[in-house]
Design brief:
Blueprint (H helix, E strand, L loop, with lengths): L13 E6 L2 E7 H6 L14 E5 L1 E6 L13 H15 L2 H17 L2 E8 L3 H10 L2 E6 L13 H11 L7 E3 L1 E3 L7 H14 L3 E5 L3 H11 L3 H7 L7 E5 L5 H10 L2 E4 L1 H6 L7 H6 L4 E3 L12 H16 L7 H8 L1 H6 L17 E5 L16 H8 L5 E6 L2 E5 L2 E2 L4 H23 L1
Parallel strand pairs: 4-5, 5-6, 6-7, 8-9, 9-10, 10-11, 11-12
Antiparallel strand pairs: 1-2, 3-13, 13-14, 14-15, 15-16
Helix pairs in contact: 2-16, 3-4, 3-16, 8-9, 12-13, 12-15, 13-15
The structure holds zinc ion (ZN).
Length: about 425
């Protein structure tokens, strides 16, 4: 069992005692068995499995474009492919996209997502139904040509209607789609709304050199410096990507306490470049991990993301000690919870936190052998050998959401049929707009 409580120890074997929605004891099996509160408890035998806190996806977009926009550079891909699909999107299609993304996430052991998407009332309903933690961030944009995105007014509606729902599992944040899609006025309005609702702010930045050039040309500052100028950075802000940040911008991120969502698969697939993870970490920047969307990854599997994050760090630094499996496990669990401002509630298996727990099968050939004691190799397995398909059980707030590899309360067949139909409708609508 991996408490991920900052000590980098595994309890082998370990046990976690849950009462209602809360973890009340964690320790070696014998010790937890002897706890008087364990008398009469229902036992879930996780022998032969790794037990971990649920994973946090700090940057995700619901969507239905998987596999359809390949081998394009980021800005070309956005202009020719992603933005036309945004024009064709309806609230119903958007809700089904969230149903697909959140169910896929849960099955892969992700208990908490930060989703930047549109028409998010439907996303809120889906999250409530499925039972996972969801931080909903609308894509707000106000520059000419981006009128089909969300506005600060629709972001306000989402905050008023859905923030804090489902016992706090569903939260709304303020979203800025992109520095180049938003006026300074919109950014300042977003920052004010964060204060008003005591919530967080999320955006993408510094994904490509093009953005940095454009920011310097239009504003006379690099993107992170411009965000600071617009009052958008602070401990409640999270910026995805941060690939092309210089030393001054890393200092700004660290000084303001801004979190970063590292998205290695997306950054590699769109040929954006490697984020300076070692420098960000050395500067004390809070780092979580994100899958980005289905169209730029193309899975939402954070086990893949941990592996690629490690390999990317190794190959860019030429340092085999970089990308340590424990760093990756922390980035996907406790550090991710900290980035999302959820660390008082979840992110590690410690008494007093909510019971967001997953089990991962270790009996596959790809995770053989499993060794104990001084040869313990399961941390490495989880990062380099396991995948989301190995996740067997998921609990959030102590409620079972995945049991023996199948979602509880929704069927994979239903999700798949709905997503297939919604995607076909979306592509037909987009083709009609083109003609
Ligand atoms: Zn993104």
């Amino acid at each position: 069992m991996f408490p991920l409580d900052g000590t980098r120890r595994a309890l082998d074997p370990g046990s976690v005692l849950v009462e209602g929605s809360e973890i009340v004891a964690v320790g070696p099996v014998d010790a937890v068995d002897a706890d008087p509160r364990a008398a009469g408890a229902e036992v879930h035998d996780a022998s032969g499995r790794a037990v971990l806190p649920g994973l946090h996806n700090c940057h995700l977009h619901s969507g239905l474009l998987r596999g359809t926009a390949e081998s394009k550079a980021l800005w070309e891909w956005l202009r020719d492919y992603v933005d036309p699909a945004h024009r064709a999107l309806t609230p119903e299609i958007a809700e089904t996209a969230s149903l697909l993304a959140y169910t896929e996430s849960l099955l892969a052991g992700t208990t908490s997502v930060m989703d930047m998407w549109r028409h998010m009332g439907g996303s809120a309903r889906v999250a409530e139904r499925l039972g996972l933690r969801a931080t909903l961030v609308p894509y707000v944009a106000d520059m000419p040509g981006y009128d089909y995105f969300e506005t600060l007014a629709t972001n306000r509606e989402l905050l008023e209607e859905h923030h804090g729902r489902a016992d706090g599992r569903v939260r709304a944040w303020v979203g800025i789609e992109h520095l180049l899609y938003c006026s300074e006025e919109a950014c300042r309005g977003a920052a004010a709304m964060v204060e008003e609702f005591d919530t967080g702010l999320h955006t993408h930045s510094s994904e490509t050199t093009y953005e940095v050039e454009q920011s310097l040309e239009r504003f006379g500052r690099r993107p992170i410096a411009e965000f600071e100028h617009r009052g958008m950075l602070g401990p409640r802000s999270v910026v995805a990507h941060c690939v092309w940040v210089d030393d001054d911008e890393i200092e700004i991120l660290a000084r303001t306490g801004t979190g970063v969502a590292h998205c290695p698969c997306s950054n590699m697939k769109l040929a954006s470049g490697p984020a300076p993870v070692a420098a960000l970490r050395a500067a004390g920047v809070r780092l979580g991990i994100g899958s980005d969307g289905e169209k730029e990854n193309n899975t939402l599997d954070l086990f893949d993301e941990m592996k690629f994050a490690s390999l990317l760090e190794k190959v860019t630094t030429l340092d085999a000690t970089a990308g340590d499996p424990w760093d990756m496990l922390e980035m996907a669990t406790s550090d991710g919870a900290r980035v999302l401002g959820l660390d008082a509630v979840t992110g590690s298996l410690v008494p007093g936190k909510r019971a967001d727990v997953i089990t991962v099968a270790l009996d596959g050939l790809h995770t053989t052998p499993v060794l104990h004691g001084r040869d313990f190799n399961v941390a490495a397995h989880l990062v380099f050998s396991s995948s989301g398909h190995d996740v067997r059980d998921v609990w959030v707030d102590g409620r079972p959401l995945v049991a023996d590899g199948a979602p509880v309360g929704v069927s994979v067949a239903e999700v798949r049929a709905k997503a297939q139909a919604a995607a076909e409708e979306l592509f037909e609508r987009r083709a009609a707009l083109d003609s």
